[in-house]
Each structure stands twice: as structure tokens, then as C-alpha cells.
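Kindly review this record before class:
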Amino acid sequence: MIRYLHLLPLLTLIGCSRCQPPDQVDPPPDLLLELDGMSFTRSEVEEYGRYIREEVDHRIGQLALTETVLDKVLIPMKLARRAFPEQRAQKEKHARALSTYVGNQGVAELAARGHTLGGYRPESPLTRNSLPLPVSRYVFDESNLGQVSPPIEVPQGYCVIASYDLERGLTRVSDRVDVYQVPFYTHDGDEFAAWYQGAREALKGRVTYAHPDVLDGLPPWLKNP
């Protein structure tokens, strides 16, 4: 049920699936989106938004930023938490065990311990856009250079990572980082992409609240065709 009466006309435009007369209750001030029982807040978007604006592209507009964070991080991650809770809990446990064991011994020890767990060092340094946003935010922070990360949650599961070197480019987008990473994922990339595509189809018409500030920043697939 839609609980926020003053936005009923806006929600109808994006395909609300339950538009019976709602209770008139003001939404929490931080709430941006309710989708199939999942809540997304301004604070959650801003957690990644600061990194994007300050370290990737200061020219990005708020609507584009919101769409990117929702579609690339928050929506798939919350969907995966709900769909695969036991598998994700197990992956987090293993990732935490590795991170704790390696501790502050650095990237060399992570590589020594991680190779039997599917860890690898990419053949060439990676750009910001070639890594999941939560991972990119960690490894491109110079204060983390050479440090082994705690388990970093991404839509596919968790990742433990450390950087050998960080090369600054002419622009932030062209910065590159040489890393060793150990993924603890519930699915490989193709499997997860296929699952997320199906999950997105099932979410169409299931928006039950959208703040006016985010209405034009929703991922296009979330709107009814």
C-alpha cells in the first residue's frame, strides 16, 4: 500500500501496482524510494555520491548520480541480500576470516593466502570504472595503499582486496590501480547479470513511493514500458 498520499499522482505515472486509497502519513525525511518492500534513503545514495562527485566526475548531475548508485549498487545488492541470504552470510564469513588472518601483513600476504581461494592479480592496472563502486572507492583512496581491506560488500557478494600501486592519470577517470583481489561471490558475472535482469523485470510496477527529487532519477527499466 502507498502510505504517502501527496505523491499518489506521481506514483501512478511510474506504474504503482497497489493504488488503493492510502493512509495519509508523511514519509520519513530521508526516504527516497520504496520498491517492493525495500527502502532506499538519501543517506545511502550520498554514501557513494560523495565519492563519485569528488573522485570520479564533479560534473555529474544529481539525477544521473542517483540513477547510477541505485542501479549499480543499492538495488541489486538489496535484492541479492533478500534472494540469497544464506549464501551471502557464508561468503561474508569466509571473506572476514581471510581479512582477519592476513591482518595488516599487506598485499604480499594476501596474494600468498588468496591464490587457493580464487584470488588473482589482473594482468594490467584497473581504472575506477572497471571495479564495482564500493571496491573502487576503497582502492583509489591513497590512505589504503598496500592495506588489506575488510570484506567489501558488492552486489555479487564480498571482496577482499589490496593495492600494490596507484598511478594517477591526467584525469581522475584515467587513474589506474594495480591490485590483488579475492572475490567471495555467490554467482559468477554472467550468472549474476542474468539473475539481475530477471529480477528487474519482476520489479516493474512495484514502486510504492518515490520522492519528487528522485522521480526523474529512477533507472529507466523501473518504469512501465
Observations:
- Residues 5-83+192-222 form one domain.
